[in-house]
């Protein structure tokens, strides 16, 4: 079996957050996979874990201070920035991300990160409000634009008894992401601007336009009521984020959702299926169109101008009419049909048989089928188990993965399917 991290040298920058303790486990996971790990702790990190613990687990000296004379004589920050195959920043705090984004070389970690041309993976971890702050979103978009790879953060309970995105990705996930980054970057540096190559392998969709639909639709019954579904928008948003990280110019047409807009993506918010179709048509042309939205199949035939009242008798029957099929409409366009049209099939039973029928009916090139029966917890949940169904009826089943990871892998697949 090949071990992608065998003998790869990782400089692990540990930032100053409560999640720093997980960086110790990450050292172990990376070493289990054959990597050599050199730890570098910021001043803040040393409030949470000791250089001694990191050094003991890494079997290497831990670096800490920019102005350590002995260290400068011995290895020096420029050498640290070069003498590895990749740099991993975990946890990447809001402050460290800000310093990276602005190119501020105020301590050893930031100096090394500024001086390097190596591929960089950051694993952000911070309070959910800090993560959602526009400043952090801007910094994240800047870093992604510079070719920095990102894993997580995950949703979950936080140290401050809050819930939401901000938890450090699990050490095994980070190790997977390092493997993926090194596999993708074997052709050279992660930085296109430094390597001077026309196409950065970390940004396979540079120069491409990607259109994604996401979330549910709301179909009004009257001014205060609507028909909707349980879609959270997580999968569609994750695909849009991954496409942006891969260098694409992304338009995300989203129904009403409770999650933040992905960084670096143009978002058009809509409510109804008809508004979604209109927004999608306006956003064309695109190289890739991914229809992830859980579009309401029906809408009330007429919308009450005022709130419909109870009048003591039986309720008036709700008459429904069918909504336009956005995916089928776009897949059937003759002049500006996107090169790759991808549909989703949320099924509660007979997933594959239904998906095979659907790909033909909708006219798309690829269908991503998933089981959304209540027991799976996919609708509104954080993970997804998908099957890729091809036009020839072929099926590829992926393991259950975090929706962000599904998004990244799908985007890598889409990029591979596009003609050069
Ligand atoms: O027919 P079904 O709703 O299962 O098809 C799912 C796929 O079709 C998804 O890609 C969804 O975004 C898309 N769709 C659409 N417009 C509709 C219904 C579904 O784009 N009205």
| Tally of alpha and pi helices | 15
Domains (count)? 2
Mean pLDDT across all residues, rounded? 88
Report the count of strand segments: 21
The span between the termini is 31 Å
Task: Kindly estimate the percentage of residues that lie in beta strands according to DSSP.
Answer: 15-25%
Envelope shape: elongated
CATH-derived topology of the largest domain: Rossmann fold
The level of helicity is 25-40%
CATH class annotation of the largest domain: Alpha Beta
**Model regions low in confidence, pLDDT < 50 over at least 5 residues:** 185-199
Question: In the CATH hierarchy, what is the superfamily of the largest domain?
Answer: CoaB-like
Query: Quick one: biggest sheet?
Result: 8 strands, mixed
Q: Which sequence of strands runs across the widest sheet?
A: 12-11-8-13-16-17-19-20
- Assembly type: single chain
Briefly note the structural class of the backbone.
Answer: alpha/beta
Structure write-up:
It is built from 15 helices and 21 strands. The protein is an alpha/beta fold. The protein has 2 domains: 9-198, Rossmann fold; 209-305 and 318-417, CoaB-like (Rossmann fold, 3-Layer(aba) Sandwich). A hairpin with a 5-residue loop joins strand 6 and strand 7 (163-167). Helix 1 packs parallel to helix 2 and helix 1 packs across helix 9. The longest helix has 15 residues, at 403-417. The two termini are 31 Å apart. The structure holds cytidine-5'-monophosphate (C5P). Cytidine-5'-monophosphate (C5P) binds at residues 213, 273, 291, 293, 295, 297, 323, 325-327, 343-345. Pfam families: DFP, Flavoprotein. Its cofactor is Mg(2+); FMN. In the C-terminal section; belongs to the PPC synthetase family. In the N-terminal section; belongs to the HFCD (homo-oligomeric flavin containing Cys decarboxylase) superfamily. Residues 1-209 are annotated as: Phosphopantothenoylcysteine decarboxylase.
């Amino acid at each position: 079996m090949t071990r992608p991290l065998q003998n790869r040298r990782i400089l692990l920058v540990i930032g100053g957050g409560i999640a720093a303790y997980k960086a110790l486990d990450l050292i172990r996971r990376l070493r289990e996979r054959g990597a050599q790990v050199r730890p570098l702790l910021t001043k803040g990190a040393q409030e949470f874990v000791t250089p001694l613990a990191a050094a003991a687990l890494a079997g290497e000296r831990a670096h800490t201070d920019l102005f350590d004379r002995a260290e400068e004589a011995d290895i020096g920050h420029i050498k640290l920035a070069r003498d590895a195959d990749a740099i991993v920043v975990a946890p990447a705090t809001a402050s460290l991300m800000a310093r990276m984004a602005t190119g501020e070389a105020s301590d050893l970690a930031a100096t090394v990160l500024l001086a390097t041309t190596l591929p960089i993976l950051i694993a952000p971890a911070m309070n959910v409000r800090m993560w959602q702050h526009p400043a952090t979103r801007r910094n994240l978009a800047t870093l992604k634009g510079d070719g920095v790879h990102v894993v997580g953060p995950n949703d979950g309970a936080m140290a401050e008894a809050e819930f939401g995105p901000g938890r450090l990705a699990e050490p095994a996930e980070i190790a997977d992401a390092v493997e993926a980054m090194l596999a993708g970057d074997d052709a050279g540096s992660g930085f296109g601007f430094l390597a001077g190559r026309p196409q950065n392998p970390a940004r396979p969709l540079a120069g491409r336009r990607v259109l994604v639909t996401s979330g549910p639709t709301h179909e009004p019954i009257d001014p205060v009521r609507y028909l909707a579904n349980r879609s959270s928008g997580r999968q569609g948003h994750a695909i849009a984020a991954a496409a942006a990280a891969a260098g694409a110019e992304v338009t995300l047409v989203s129904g009403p959702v409770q999650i933040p807009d992905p960084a670096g993506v143009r978002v058009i918010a809509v409510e109804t299926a008809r508004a979604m179709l209109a927004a999608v048509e306006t956003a064309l042309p695109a190289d890739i169109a991914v229809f992830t939205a859980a579009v309401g199949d029906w809408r009330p035939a007429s919308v009450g101008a005022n709130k419909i009242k109870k009048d003591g008798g039986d309720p008036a029957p709700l008459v429904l009419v069918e909504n336009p099929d956005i995916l089928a409409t776009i897949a059937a366009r003759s002049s500006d049909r996107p090169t790759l049209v991808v549909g989703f099939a949320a099924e509660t039973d007979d997933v594959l048989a239904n998906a095979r029928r659907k790909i033909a009916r909708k006219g798309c090139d690829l269908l991503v089928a998933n089981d959304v029966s209540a027991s799976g917890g996919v609708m509104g949940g954080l993970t997804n188990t998908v099957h890729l169904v091809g036009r020839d009826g072929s099926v590829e089943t992926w393991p259950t993965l975090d929706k962000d990871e599904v998004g990244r892998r799908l985007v890598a697949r889409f990029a591979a399917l596009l003609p050069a």
